[in-house]
Amino acid sequence: MGQDLPTKPTPHGPVLDELLIDAEVDDAELQPPARQPSAWLLLLGLVLVALNLRPALSSMAPVLGDVSRSLGLSGSQAGLLTTLPVLCLGLFAPLAPLLARRFGSERVILGVLLCLAGGIALRSNLGSFGIFAGSLIAGASIGVIGVLLPGIVKRDFPSHAGSLMGVYTMALCLGAALAAGATVPLGHHFGDDWRLGLGVWLVPALLAALIWLPQARQGHGAHHAAFQVRGLWCDRLAWQVTLYMGLQSSLAYIVFGWLPSILIGRGLSPVEAGLVLSGSVIVQLLSALTAPMLATRGKDQRLAIVIVMLLTLVGLFGCLYAPLGGLWGWAVVLGIGQGGTFALALTLIVLRSRDAHVAAHLSSMAQGVGYTLASAGPFAVGLVHDLSGGWNAVGWIFAVIGTGAIGFGLLAGRARYVRVSSERI
């Protein structure tokens, strides 16, 4: 069971500063040799890399119907296609620190960016095998890069970590929104072919790799000191944080994977459905940046968690059942809710940890297990749609996952620390 805090959690100003923690980097080693001449190039590279961490996920949803018809996929197979990249986010995340110790974070990011571009290219070729194999490679690549970028931000920009985390979050959302809104129009522009609409997203991945090349040449290499955290996997509070992370992420990836298909089934064109998803993701910027700061002003985060989860559920049910005339309003509500749920999930990792090393290990647990759990949501939506022949029954999935997220969020939102020990080895 978690250990009570002596006082209410101290606001972190901004709280997302402390999310940029590398588990294996000793505090004294966080200050690298000066790299002023390449600081702006590094910042540009970080932004471009972050822009590429969502298009492979959000670009599939608007063309999923065309992909399924073209390749003869069932609803369950389409659900697996939306699930596979999310599953890889969790399964391949633990590989990142091992690769970074061996080759250095910068070199790993360059290599994995090229793998990401290759996975995106593969999705547009070789039929059913290509679409599934490419999705697996893309998801694995995103999972590795997503673990490494925050540590580089913390190491190279320690005095501006909070503001750069905001830029990082904005780049993630912007990449997702661009891919959701532009994939179908780009496919139409290049010959009315979904393959070209999906394949075009390898271009920004290659551009990011080109801009990142100088960082790989100047990479720091291995410099990590290991810390051991004992008792984390037996701590109830750690599991409550993890399950909240996983359940709210499940709803998020259901939206990425299936919202356009749901809206197309309700009568929207693929272009319109992609734009609705794109607009909802853009709205997330507002709550993703403000929710953590507001949540840390109270004695705990339970009220904030309930509010953003209810907004998420209201937006989901509105998009699924309400008249289409008010669809954009429901999409805005959904975006506000989901931006807040994701940001608070990250914030809880910091607030429930006594020190940087515990926070980093809790982050690894919450994201590794959480994203693996989250992958079941998109698959369940595809399965239910396949069995029922429509979308109405999907509302039960929203209700079950949302209720579970509220329940575990109320437990994780209490002002306590996980009860573990941390020591250098």
Automatic annotation (TrEMBL):
What's an example GO cellular component term for this entry?
membrane
The name this protein goes by in its record: CynX/NimT family MFS transporter
Tell me the keywords, alphabetical order.
Answer: Membrane, Transmembrane, Transmembrane helix
Classify the source by domain of life: Bacteria
Pfam families hit by this protein: MFS_1 (PF07690)
Instruction: Recall the GO molecular function terms of this protein's record.
Output: transmembrane transporter activity
